[in-house]
Amino acid sequence: MRSLLGRSLALASLAVLAACAAPQRAGPPTATTPPPVTATPAPVPPPQPYATARTAVEAGVTPGPALSQLPSWREADLGPALAAFRKSCRQVSRRPDPSGLTQPADWAAACAATDSDARRFFEREFTAVVIGTGQGLNTGYFEPEIEGSRTPTATASVPIYRRPSDLIEVDLGQFTESLKGRRVRGRVVNATLVPYFERAEIEDGALAGRNLELAYAADVYHLFFLHIQGSGRVRMPDGSVMRIGFDGQNGREYVGIGKRLREMNALGPGQATMDGIIAWMRANPEQGKALMRENKSYIFFRELTGEGPLGSMGVAVTPEVSVAADPQFIPLGAPLWIDTMIPEPNAKDPKGYTQTPFRRMMVAQDIGGAIKGPNRYDLFWGPGDRAAKVAGGLSWQGRAVVLLPKAAAARLLGDGTQARP
What is the reported pTM? Predict the structure, then answer.
């Protein structure tokens, strides 16, 4: 889970929502609801030879291009990526890397460097590699804002829950090497670990009366999409804002409601957006409630008082710089060069957008429930209507090269042709 989305669960694109879900009750739309987006689905890639790989090394790691040869490298503003990378240094140099690509000590030189010239820094400290084919799905997530209250009111009564004290997370890798990187969540009943309450049980009151309510949302659908993002803002009746971030997930299965609605032929062309899905659920409340409960996953939050929102590394994520990735395939904290297309809002048509090239140095600082596999990246766009629209419309088969510390790349590539397990 990405923490922001820790997430939260990641939004695997509000436009496509094939990897996303959606939620529970009804209420008037908020003033910050973004305009509908007519999405262009990502082309379906051919089956990849690394489809069953469990780590980056299994997927195959080959030398990437020289950084100076990347399209737009000389024109790119690399300063924000350098600042974001340095935020993660303390974590990346201490935590294990389940991808098998790096060791904590590999990051020491880059984290100790004090260059102010970002281009020189990246060229000197890193080597570009390609995981598998380097091609995969790019989607987007953002920081939504919903209406709510710190106390229950006639117009805001849907609980936003804190993490329960009986939610236990178990690192299975501590018990057997074959399960390294795998975790399960649950609760203890009669000295036995059992699955935690699923969405339907929590909505029906499984956590009521335990003083876990952090705040209350005015609209259950908007809260559910906030669950997907993993963090966001709650605007109070007096105009003040509470920022909340991911603080745990119940460990239950995540089901994408957009995909389910398409399987039911319930959505027409261009309707697989947040607004389109919410509109369908408002028109079909009982079916919508049942469908939402197919997504058994549930997110818990905490109030953020400092810089935020926070990614899964515990550092604030940066709009248009931070990405969510699968840590089995990319080290969290690693820089990467993304080459994709994004849906920029069209000034002449408020309901439309224009596909625009996006080439940027970014940093993997988050994870997401739907962000699985090699070259699967969820790009963070920050708050606001533009962020919502870009994130909601982004679904593109982009390309990526990953930057590894030179020591790690030399150890992996050996003769320079392929990674060694």
Answer: 0.73
